[in-house]
Every structure is written in C-alpha cells, then in structure tokens.
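User: Some background: our group keeps a shared notebook of sequences we're curious about, and every so often someone picks one and asks for a predicted structure to add to the entry. Today it's my turn. The entry only has the sequence so far, pasted here. Could you supply the structure so I can complete it?
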Amino acid sequence: MTVASYYQPLLAQLPHYLELLAATPLPLSDWHGVASQAVGYRHLQYGVPCQDHGLVHCQGRPLLVLCDGAGSAPCAEVGAHVLSEGMRRLLISLEPLLGHWLDQPAAPDELVQLAMLLVRHAKGINADLGATGRRSGDDFRSTLLLAVAGRHRVFWLQVGDGLLALRERGYPGSPWRQLGKASKGEFANQTAFIDPQLSFAQVTWGTEPAGRVDAVVAMSDGAAERLYSSAERRFAPLLDQWIEQQATGRELYECLSQSELWRRTTGDDKSVALLVAPIAKAV
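Assistant: Of course. Here's the predicted structure to add to the notebook entry:
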C-alpha cells in the first residue's frame, strides 16, 4: 500500500473539513502581532532614511498596515509613516461598521464601500500632507497594504507593490498563499501609489473566511526579495519560524538588518507586518 492510498480516506474528507473551517468564527482576542522595518544598504549609502513603515494592532480588532514610500518622492518617509498611522486610526474608529461587515457569517455587498472609504481616506491623508507642507501630494506618495480581522471574514486591501499573503489553516502542502498581486520589482514594471492620480481601478481588495486564516503577512518589495520567490511561488521558511517562535519586534528588526541574509539584493528598505491568529474554536 502506498502512502497516498493509505491517506486516501482522510483526503476524501478534506473538502468537508475545509467547509467547516470556512464557517467557523474566529475570536478577536489572543492574536499575536509583530512589525518592524530596516533601512536598506543602498539608502544608507546615499544617506536616505528608511521609507518603509509597518505596524500591527491587536488591542481590540486585529489589524496590520504597511506602507512603502516612493523612492523618488522627497518626503517619502513622512508619507509612509503618516499614512500607516492614519489608516490604523481610521480602522479603529470604524469599529461599529467593521463589526457589521466582518463579524457576520455572510460577506455583505457593502464591502466595496469599505474599500472605497479606505482609499478615499488614504488619498485625503496624502492631500493634507501636501497642503500642510505646501507641496504636491506626489512628494509624499506611498504604497498601502492592510488587513483587518473579523470573526467571520478577514478583509485585505492593496495599492501598489509589496506582498500580502496568508497562511491557510487546514491546507495540504504549502500553506502560504499570495493575496492580490504585486506590481513592481521582480513582479512587474510599474506600481501605483496613494497619490492625487490614484484611481479605484488600481486598488486590489478582497476577503477570506476567518476560520481558515492561520496568519497574515504584509511585506515591502525589499523584504519580498528574500521572503518570496515569484518564479517558484514559494515563501521562505523564515516566515513560519517567526510564527512558531512568536518573534518579537526586536528579533524581527535584527533579522531585517542582518547583512548576510540580504546580501546580493537590491539594497532596498525592508519591512514586515505579521498577524498570527489564535486556534479557531466554534463559539
């Protein structure tokens, strides 16, 4: 009897098992989150500050936000920092709406309104930065990756490059799966930013059944150079190590700053934001 035939009875039950996971609500407490960023050696060489900023929030509704400022923008580090913090504050303030949209078994049609609201607010932050600094919003442009958890749905949104992915509970084989699609670096030739020219057609968003989400990660394209191979569609084991060891912000920073690990990369800034879900339980 081969190994495959031995496990055949269990494999036959897999679709039913995944259905149960999809319908299982996930508690909003006991999530683990970690985020950090490190300046790339190319930026150090030219005296440019780190233009990435990632954060997580686990007090209440778990969420992550990661922004990568445009390298050609003179105030990119300010744009990335202010945008990520502003989106975090907005998501916290939207709690009643998020509870309605993400804590229900069915994914409501109104989720497109949530995506549009988030993008309009992000563009508003960019416009305010430009007005305050008496500059164009282009001087503060930044990408935007975010994810926010609900009891039944996990919502995610992407503008520009970088990578959003989830580790799927109950998946046979490699559990990591990319969300949306990246649009720069080794992935494509151009990207979009939160700036005055952004249209909603350039925004990618979606939801996933919360009960099947083990973890969600956002990374800038600089970090993705080592953490994801687009050619092989393979994620680095380092992601699983951070999850299993419940890495701290300091440990994550030390890894992102390790010269040997990032040798022979483009030298871009590197940022990672990681949310790890608790064990799913029927409630």
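Suggested note for the entry: The longest strand covers residues 32-38. The chain has ten helices and twelve strands.
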